[in-house]
Amino acid sequence: MAQVASHSPGNPTEMAPPKQQDEEWQENLNVRMICKDCREDPPNIYEDHASGDMICASCGLVLAARVIDTSSEWRTFSNDDQGNDDPSRVGDGPNALLNGAQLNTGIAFEGGGIKSKELHRAQNKANLDKGNKGLLQAYKQIGALCDGWQLPNSVSDSAKHIYKEADESKIFKSKSQDALIAGCVFLACRRNNVPRSFREVTELTKVSKKEIGRTFKQLEQLLMKNQRNKEGATSVVSGGVVVRADEYTGSTSADPSELCNRFCSMLDMNRRTTTVATELASKMKSTGVLAGRSPLSSAAACIFMAGQLMGQPKTAKEIQGVAKVSDSTIRQAYKLLYMDKEKIITQDIIDRGADVSNLVKPA
Ligand SMILES: [Zn+2]
Q1: Which of 77, 226, 258, 278 has the most crowded CB, counting CB atoms within 10 A?
Q2: What is the tens place of the pLDDT at every residue in 227-260?
Q3: Ligand 1 center–CA 28 separation, angstroms
Q4: Which ranges carry the TFIIB-type domain (predicted)?
């Protein structure tokens, strides 16, 4: 009873919208094939690979004969891929993290004689991509570091992207590979809102704090430059934190007000004091007081000041314990804050119960 549909598989009752000329060819995903007898939609079509027929499973009408089976004739098992016996005829998709489109030809030596083996070796040698080899090595190292910290994949991916940009710029040629990788991981952590301190990165990578810091600064400059070249946008520097008017989010995660939140909770400070500390930090940022200071010491100074304002003072030593900046640095930053206290202690902060007379005059 089965009857063979006379034409190509696309023929039986197609629902094709009118074609437009002058446009680049694209597969029309609106075309669906349905059975011309039962017109069931969604169709219940089944490909019988053994006989090469395309059959409507509802009525048994053969819609197409001699269908080409495009699936592979082998199955892959992960532990099968030993000794280069992967039978697939295509490689991976292009990897944006590597150079080039990776569309080079490979010569298989399986099944061939000595000649093909030699050809394979010669071609392999000629195609040896040194640049990609270095990149792969670095990506491996970055992946291992991020795994060690149980950081999400997004961090290791962005570290790899940063590394690639750095590699392309060639300014880190003379730098040690370890330092560059440490800098990339550090920056990637910040960009993904899981900041790690220099000390933590030092412990993990055994690269000195100074070296990481220097690499990080250079990396950030490079990324900003690249960004600017791309969009011709400008950058604003305020409060010691580089804030991009648009896309670049490099250091914004080391925002002093965010740090204030974290440190205040570590110090067991109450909600009101925390709010005042974060307000001070954001005011400090917008007025440019403490510009050029590290976000850590700025945040520490804001907490120091907020504690006094709200009658919940913490000593510089206590703050040092969480912010990991020396108490003398905190006091120095506080001194600058104190000098500009009229600018940063807003009416809003006073309304929250801040008492300016509580402030200790810096030495
Ligand atoms: Zn049917």
Answers
A1: 278
A2: 777 654 444 443 344 434 344 444 444 678 878 8
A3: 23
A4: 30-64
Nearest Cα residue to 65 out of 1, 2, 4: 4
Q: How far is the CA of 44 from the centre of ligand 1 (A)?
A: 8
Are 54 and 63 in contact by the 8 Å Cβ rule? The answer is yes
CA of 12 to the centre of ligand 1 (A): 11
pLDDT, average across residues 286-291:
79
Q: How far is the CA of 273 from the centre of ligand 1 (A)?
A: 73
Ligand 1 centroid distance, CA of 45 (Å) = 8
Q: What is the CATH number of domain 132-240?
A: 1.10.472.10
State the span(s) of the chain assigned CATH 1.10.472.10. Answer: 132-240, 255-358
Q: What's the 151 CA to ligand 1 centre distance in angstroms?
A: 53
| Ligand 1 centroid – CA 29 distance (Å) | 22
3-class SS string, 155-192: HHHHHHHHHHHHHHHCCCCCCCHHHHHHHHHHHHHHHC
Ligand 1 centre distance from Cα of residue 27 (Å) = 25
Question: What is d(CA 211, CA 214) in angstroms, rounded to the nearest whole number?
Answer: 5
Cα of 285 from ligand 1 centre, angstroms: 70
* Helix (H) or strand (E) run with residue 139 in it: helix 130-148
Number of Cβ within a 10 Å radius of residue 106 = 11
Tell me the range of 125-129, 238-242, 314-318 where mean pLDDT is highest: 314-318
CATH topology for 255-358? Cyclin A; domain 1 (1.10.472)
Q: 3-class DSSP state for residue 235?
A: strand
